[in-house]
Hints:
The chain is an alpha+beta fold. The chain has helices spanning 11-29, 34-37, 82-96, 111-116, and strands spanning 4-9, 46-52, 55-62, 67-73, 101-107, 120-121, 126-128, 131-139. Strands 1, 2, 3, 4, 5, 6, 7 and 8 form an 8-stranded mixed beta sheet that branches. A hairpin with a 2-residue loop joins strand 2 and strand 3 (55-62). The longest helix has 19 residues, at 11-29.
Amino acid sequence: MNKIRVRVADWQKDIAEIRRIRETVFIAEQSVPPELEWDADDATAVHFLAFEGDFPIGTARLLPDGHIGRVSVLKDWRGMKVGDALMQAVIAEAEARGLKQQMLSAQVQATAFYERLGFSLVSEEFLEAGIPHVDMVRHSA
């Protein structure tokens, strides 16, 4: 396996790859309605792409208020630390922008993953797009 690398994406130039990953993970695999997946926040978010070699395999976004979302990795690359690399890049970018607090709504099954990265639970379980979620927060030093 090649080394995983993550870079800040250009929404205009990289939209096809971002859409391909998010549509595969959220719409096809998890049955999220397309109208819930795509929103106005995409235009103002900082997007990230994870690559193995030259092939995009994961994506995430950071909103100006410190919300992290749309963290997704293609099935064949899960369990290979791609999510870790993506999240470390997002957190580093948030901190570079002076966002001392990062927030996200995590799917309940991914809670332990985010806890390993320093996030703490701050809500009860709730449904989002029919999937159980919890809100989590991380504070930078």
